[in-house]
Amino acid sequence: MTTATRLVRRVQLTGGSTYIVSIPKEWAGMVGIEKGSQVVLQLEPDGSIRLRPSARRSQVQLEAEVRAGEGVSRGAVVREVLSKYLLGYKSIRVRMEKEDVELRKMLREVMVSKLIGAEVMHEDSRELVIQVLVNVEDIPVPDVIARMRDAAQGMMEDPIALLKNEREDVDLKEVAARDDIVDKLYFYGLRQLYSAVRGFAGLEDIGLSRLEEILPHAMVLKNLERISDHAAFIARTLSQMPREPPGREELAEAAEAVVAFFRWSVDAFLSRDRSAANRLLDVDAEKLREHDRELANKLLKGYDTSLLVNIRSILGSYRRIVEYSSDILEVVIDLTER
């Protein structure tokens, strides 16, 4: 089929009351449509119609190949594999011009820490085949977001329990390592969205109902991934500080308010609660920013330089969590625009 993506067809009238439009024969063959096949017509809010086969595209077509050789860095190969995963491919074959043990090690580490359902099905000195065993409909996108919310919330709550002396068994390095869970869910969520855009899955298969919901969900996924990064940074920074750092009670109190705001923000998105989003932006976000300024003025003085740097970094991460949560609330307002 040609590379043209815009085709013009003349509308025909048959039977005196039915309009018909032909579809390109090459495209029909490519996606497996033949006489008697059923197709889905998705009516979009802008008045357009999206047409796709009712059956999912053949898995045979969802194979990709990545070549590693001279002039291609290991990082570039890893990024290419990640890209193929995000684009919805079920099988990714990495071909190497020569044996590269370090590259195979890097790819295995990425699969473990970043990719849900990716397993090595074949490996030799010149080739590695990655098979994605999970289906996009196994965890709908709204459920992915809920799980990312819960994981990130847990990453923030455990250090608070440590600051308040409520728990002594909190391993801050383990808390930071949970960022891998959120990363996995993030890439899996993006894979679902790309699969819907490319026609590998229907919107209803991934828990959405309208094409225009794809971009807002991608934005929320990214904000959650960034929030998790900051939660991991906070845990790592606290692990470098005294067991009972100065101002720990005030810091714990401020952190609890940030965690609650974060949770409410994601819940407002999942429930499409426009009024809650406006209230959180107008009232709660402003209170948190004011409290942040007061806490910074109180804590960022009178201590040695290294401790001040750590406290400033932690406050900065909580500040960014509030901003990313506010971005999620802005998405709620945009998505529910009437």
UniProtKB/TrEMBL annotation:
GO molecular-function annotation terms? DNA binding
Q: Which InterPro entries match?
A: PhoU, PhoU-like_sf, PhoU_dom, SpoVT-AbrB_dom
Q: Where does the SpoVT-AbrB domain start and stop, copy by copy?
A: 13-59
Single GO BP term: intracellular phosphate ion homeostasis
**Name of protein:** Phosphate uptake regulator PhoU
Q: Which organism is it from?
A: Thermofilum pendens
Kindly list the organism's lineage.
Archaea, Thermoproteota, Thermoprotei, Thermofilales, Thermofilaceae
